[in-house]
């Protein structure tokens, strides 16, 4: 954890230096240096973003690995999710029917 904090501080210091260089380049009207500095700033932000996405992906992978061992997840996926899909499909069709015809005829009341 300390290594991540240290690299974060280095990255922040590096970005601060780049931002200061950008201000100087803008004040001097040096377009080439301005563009290069902006590109470097963008790369440093992208690198940080990709690192965070990688960490999140690893956490999701680990969490899904734990869920794979749970038999309840398999049971829910087979039994309850299809029922939820059926209910959503019914509600969608009912709403469309009402919007077109103003009513949907008799209903069993099952999915109200």
Could you please describe the fold and organization of this structure?
The protein has 112 residues and is an all-alpha fold. The protein has two domains: 2-69; 73-112. Helix content is 86%, strand content 0%. It has helices spanning 2-28, 31-68, 71-101. Helix 1 (2-28) runs antiparallel to helix 2. The longest helix is centred in the middle third of the chain and has 38 residues, at 31-68. The protein is elongated and about 70 Å long. The two termini are 51 Å apart. 1% of the residues are buried.
What labels describe this entry?
112 residues; mainly alpha; 0% strand; elongated; disordered N terminus
How many beta strands in the DSSP annotation? 0
- Separation, N- and C-terminal Cα atoms: 51 Å
Helix content: over 70%
SS-derived structural category: mainly alpha
Structure described in brief:
By secondary structure, the chain is an all-alpha fold.
Q: What's the arrangement of secondary structure elements?
A:
Elements: H1 2-28, H2 31-68, H3 71-101
């Amino acid at each position: 954890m300390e290594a991540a904090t240290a690299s974060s501080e280095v990255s922040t210091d590096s970005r601060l230096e780049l931002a200061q260089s950008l201000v100087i380049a803008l004040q001097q009207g040096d377009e080439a240096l301005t563009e290069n500095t902006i590109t470097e700033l963008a790369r440093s932000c992208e690198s940080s973003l990709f690192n965070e996405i990688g960490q999140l992906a690893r956490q999701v992978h680990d969490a899904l690995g734990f869920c794979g061992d749970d038999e309840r997840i398999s049971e829910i996926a087979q039994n309850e999710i299809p029922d939820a899909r059926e209910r959503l499909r019914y509600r969608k069709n009912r709403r469309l029917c009402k919007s077109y015809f103003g009513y949907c005829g008799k209903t069993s009341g099952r999915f109200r």
